[in-house]
Amino acid sequence: MLNAREIVLGLLLAVPLLATAAPAAESEPTVTVYKSPTCGCCTKWIAHLEAQGFDVQPVDVTDLQQIKSRAGIAPAQASCHTARVADYVIEGHVPAGDIRRLLAEHPDARGLTVPGMPQGAPGMDVPTPQHYQVLLIGKDGSTSVFAEH
Q1: How do residues 47-97 score in pLDDT, each as one tens digit?
Q2: Which domains does the chain have, with CATH numbers?
Q3: Helix residue ranges per DSSP H, the chain
Q4: Which residues contact 81 (CB under 8 A, 6 or more apart)?
Q5: Distance of CA 148 to CAs 12, 26, 54, 91, 136, Å?
């Protein structure tokens, strides 16, 4: 059993060690994913994000259209799931690297989308992937090419 003197001495020795310890690494912000409870490709996309170091909070919903509408996603920009990260909306099978780039560059935009469900995008894995674009959605709803895969 430690006496009070040993406890105080131990604490005094520990304080300088704590003061020089390296700060904790900043973690990625949480990605909240709104999806259908039965969507397998959404689950695969979530696994892709987690494998790339993102903390993901899946939320099963029955009315995705309401989520998309509130996020300002036009029908031509839509996919099977909608996510939120920081101040951005992420629609569809956007690669984790593109989300990380968006967060680093922090453009004045609504978010990113991969419209539809292109074969070869994360979560839509196939042996022969197709070319697809990741689009930046402007605050006014317009789009421009953010990345090509």
Answers
A1: 999 999 999 999 999 999 999 999 999 999 999 999 999 999 999 999 999
A2: 27-148 (3.40.30.10)
A3: 4-20, 40-51, 64-71, 96-105
A4: 33, 34, 35, 36, 39, 42, 45, 64, 91, 92
A5: 56, 28, 22, 16, 12
Tell me which residue has tokens 């003197």.
5
pLDDT of 132 > 70? The answer is: yes
Task: Give CA–CA dist 129/42, Å, rounded.
Answer: 17
* Residue 120, Ramachandran bin (φ over 0: left; ψ between -120 and 50: alpha; else beta): left
- Parallel, antiparallel, or unpaired for β 133-138 and 109-114? antiparallel
Model pTM? 0.81
Angstrom distances, CA of residue 136 to CA of 16, 96, 110, 117 = 47, 14, 8, 17
In what helix (H) or strand (E) does residue 146 lie, and over which residues does it extend? strand 143-148
